[in-house]
Design a protein that fits this description.
With 193 residues, the protein is an alpha/beta fold. It has five helices and ten strands, in the order H-E-E-H-E-H-E-E-E-E-H-E-H-E-E. It is globular and about 50 Å long. The relative contact order is 0.17. The structure holds guanosine-5'-monophosphate.
């Protein structure tokens, strides 16, 4: 998605540790015009997919999931990061290793919001090692629901998450794929799509 790549080049900051900061337009301050274009692009790429729900993870996936859900006219469910594991049995839970915070979260979704007949599109802002998406897939499988696709705004192609998911046969659509980035020069190389 050219508009997104141009914006990343203009306002993205390559930080040490293979982290791209996009907080001036994507996940702290939000450019709603860009969000709407992202949502339309997800709708275009997944136009042949029959979904009834979008699943994401708090916090930065929520806004993107919501604008995308407007395009598909489906509800959004977001997985919650929690300190305490719920033992009442009314939630599906999994563990997710956070790339940016370098810790493991317990992540839950209420059983009321994921059902065996759900056809789900996963949406998130970044794909790096794939832990967040793998965790969401785990929750979906616990409910017996199906993963119809994975929509990612920025995939860091130099990390293995995207490759592993595609090798499993999942349909992953990333609107921008970064092949390399350099925190000393700030240079970002995108994959041709
Ligand atoms: P993964 O679980 O695929 O390793 O990492 C994906 C999650 O980590 C995303 O939900 C995102 O919040 C965060 N993340 C991974 N890499 C980056 C990055 O370079 N920049 C930012 N801002 N977040 C990232």
């Amino acid at each position: 998605m050219k508009l997104l790549e141009e914006r990343i080049r203009k306002d993205g900051i390559v930080a040490p540790g293979n982290v791209l900061k996009v907080d001036s337009f994507l996940n702290h301050q939000i450019d709603i015009g860009l969000y709407n274009e992202i949502a339309k692009e997800f709708k275009r790429r997944f136009s042949d997919v029959n979904i009834n729900k979008i699943l994401t993870i708090e916090a930065s996936g929520i806004g993107i999931a919501c604008v995308t859900a407007q395009q598909f006219d489906v509800p959004v469910v977001f997985a919650k990061k929690t300190q305490s594991v719920n033992i009442a049995g009314d939630v599906y839970s999994t563990k997710i290793q956070s790339f940016t915070h370098n810790r493991v979260y317990d992540v839950i979704v209420s059983k009321r919001f994921l059902h065996s007949d759900d056809r789900i599109l996963i949406i998130d802002d970044f794909l790096a090692n794939g832990c967040a998406v793998e965790g969401l897939i785990d929750l979906i499988q616990s409910a017996g629901a199906s993963v119809e696709g994975v929509g990612i705004v920025i995939e860091k192609g130099q990390q293995s998450g995207g490759r592993h998911l595609r090798e499993k046969g999942l349909r992953v659509e990333s609107l921008a794929i970064i092949d390399s980035m350099n925190d000393e020069t700030g240079k970002i190389v995108f994959r041709e799509q």
